[in-house]
TrEMBL record:
This is MarR family winged helix-turn-helix transcriptional regulator. Pfam families: MarR_2 (PF12802). It comes from Streptomyces albidochromogenes. Keywords: DNA-binding, Transcription, Transcription regulation. The lineage of its organism: Bacteria, Bacillati, Actinomycetota, Actinomycetes, Kitasatosporales. PANTHER family: MARR FAMILY REGULATORY PROTEIN, TRANSCRIPTIONAL REGULATOR, MARR FAMILY. SMART domains: HTH_MARR (SM00347). PROSITE patterns: HTH_MARR_1, HTH_MARR_2. Gene3D superfamilies: Winged helix-like DNA-binding domain superfamily/Winged helix DNA-binding domain. Residues 9-139 form the HTH marR-type domain.
Amino acid sequence: MTPRTDPLTLEVVELIGEVVSRYHAEYDEAAAQHALTGAQARVLGLLSVEATPMRRIARKLKCEPSNITGIVDRLEARGLVERRPDPADRRVKLAAATEEGRRTAAKLRASLDFAREPLGGLSEDERTALRDLLKRMLGN
């Protein structure tokens, strides 16, 4: 299949890149306000939703498991994350956010308004259409 190079497709690709770049910059800035790196904040955000094996975190963030081990070590040292055995398989260790970790992740999420503010200017129908188009692009 030949890649699409028409002007509209190229403009959309550039706009998506700009959105991603701004999101990451704001995410890193918000993380720094909590003395976290962007990677630590992303891991903490995932773990605030559910306890997760480190290999699954690595797959989700598309990085090496050894990188996740180091990140979890640093989060654990700060009391934001703990390791616990998986009740379904005691050989597997789960990383889980502590209560303090969940509070920190919630504060971090609340401070991210780059996307929230512009999205607030769209109607519910427009936000629904955007969501559906993004899901379709991602194959969901």
